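Input chain follows. Return structure tokens only.
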Amino acid sequence: MESEDLVAAAASAGVEPVELLLAGENVQPELLGEVSTLGHAPRVMGVYRHADLPLGSRDVVMGLWRVSDPGNVGTILRTADAFGAAVALSDGCADPTGPRALRASAGAIFRVPLIDWEALPERRIALVAHGGDPLAVVDLAPPVALLLGAEREGLPESLMTTCRKASIPTPGDAESLNVAAAGAIALYELSRRGA
């Protein structure tokens, strides 16, 4: 973790660092700059165990299929945190513990359970850019998995054979929504209904 905010999020979630590096206290500031992925040297870096991340599941799960952009993975984690959902990652997804995903998650990585793809709820809604039922008329009552596909390819047909397809109607000219934006809208819609 490369920032005071992320280290504070870990502490708030009760996750203890394996190592905490503080510029000017137990490490030279320029050394932090040499190993940082940021454009500037952070004042704090924390090293954490993957095994200390949250376990368990929730009634609503965001299933990400080969979402390769770490910023999107982190943003979806942050959105899942805001709406009380868990996240499942297929093979081929960006590493949620990579630097860009961690920054985009804004500390949600310490609060959102990451579950196995095989543990998705049986009832699944495939969010597709076009051709699905309007999201507003789709039953989103939990337990449910909301499936989001890769940025360019979307979800494969083989995965959608047992899913209800839902689309978010968009009146503008864009071909489709960003995967993280679509996930946020779907979780908001579910939450708005009090599901």
